[in-house]
Specification:
360 residues; 33% helix; 11 helices; 12 strands; alpha/beta
Length: 360
């Protein structure tokens, strides 16, 4: 399927004697195999029975937290579903070492969206674990650069997550969890300077110039020192906006359709009052009820609210690891996921693999 869409994936079989004893002593057994997985993303088939023993967390901590090797885990439930799909289409008898037969099976599966949907999601997971950007925006955003910031709280400890979507087409330039604990909900001034410098350097490396405008999407509320942004960005003539994004504002949103005499959900509809907005970014099925909007607050900035909302809506299409349309902009959602995974020891502070998404 990857080949049909223009991406060549090179697979190397895993080396190791993966017996029951291996998994019972996973913490020790896996240490000798690190070199086998360097310069790769790992696709692992783990049975549901093994997952029930807690092997998933150990696996992610070792590969992601200690080795910074991205991994995609598929369960035997997916394998059984795939076998059932083949059986329903009389495709179960084929030689998977025969290139032509495999291509015939793929063509048949791709022709049926209901069947291929599951496989496409697995494929997308493999893409983004290996640093492949499967799509970009056709129409550019107004802001040149976006920084998603979040602080994760678990067991009384706070850590930060950062995910940058850089450039007018929503291209991912850098994703990295920030090392170290934080005092409460806010980023320190030094941590904020570090984030800004890392962002500008990464942007310049890829785009060959500095951005003229940066938008910071803060998950929740902005508690940080705005003067730090002025200090770092003003000498470089870079304007900025600070935007709070609330995932669950305790509101519902619908529009009245006079023709149908009922309330309906309209994706892309938003409501603005001064520096605040509510955006309906998805269109749920009618049986689910009214859509849950995103609350958007412009803390400080130069862009009109309509532009702020439009950029956030465009970035809600940039969840490149799945086919579903998602409510949140990728800046907020990925920062949330990365900070939580980092705190759980499942991803490492990163010097390489900056466009890999280990937490999806």
């Amino acid at each position: 399927m990857a080949k049909f869409h223009g991406v060549t994936l090179v697979f190397r079989p895993a080396k190791g004697d993966f017996t029951l004893e291996f998994f019972q002593n996973f913490d020790w057994s896996i240490l000798a195999l690190e070199q086998n997985y360097q310069q790769s993303a790992v696709l692992a088939m783990i049975s549901q029975k093994q997952l029930d023993t807690g092997i998933y967390d150990k696996f992610k901590r070792q590969f992601g937290g200690k080795w910074d090797i991205t991994s995609q885990i598929v369960t035997d439930k997916v394998l059984q579903k795939f076998k059932a799909l083949l059986l329903n289409r009389n495709l179960q008898e084929f030689d998977y070492n025969d290139k032509q037969q495999c291509e015939q099976v793929v063509r048949s599966l791709m022709a049926d969206w209901d069947i291929s949907y599951t496989l496409y999601n697995v494929l997308l997971g493999m893409y983004v674990k290996g640093g492949v950007q499967p799509w970009v925006l056709a129409n550019r955003t107004v802001s040149d650069c976006f920084i998603g910031l979040d602080v994760s709280h678990e067991n009384g400890v706070s850590t930060a997550g950062i995910m940058n979507i850089v450039g007018p087409n929503g291209q991912l330039i850098k994703q990295s969890a920030m090392a170290g604990a934080l005092p409460g909900e806010k980023f320190t001034d030094d941590k904020l300077r570090e984030i800004l410098h890392d962002t500008l350097f990464a942007y310049q490396q890829v785009m060959q110039s500095l951005p003229t405008h940066i938008t910071i999407h803060r998950d929740g509320r902005w508690f940080e020192n705005t003067a730090v942004l002025q200090e770092v960005l003003a000498p470089k003539n870079i304007a900025f906006d600070i935007i709070n994004v609330t995932k669950k504002p305790n509101r519902r949103m619908a529009s009245y359709d006079a023709g149908q005499n009922k309330f309906v959900t309209q994706e892309g509809r938003y409501y603005v009052r001064d520096n605040e907005a509510l955006l309906c970014a998805t269109s749920p099925n009618e049986r689910i009820g009214m859509a849950q909007p995103i609350k958007i607050v412009q803390v400080e900035g130069v862009l009109p609210m309509a532009t702020v909302v439009e950029d956030i809506y465009k970035l809600s299409f940039m969840h490149i690891h799945c086919l579903n349309k998602t409510r949140l902009p990728a800046t907020i959602h990925y920062a949330d996921l990365s900070s939580t995974a980092y705190q759980r020891g499942q991803i490492a502070p990163r010097a390489t693999n900056l466009t890999h998404l280990p937490f999806v």
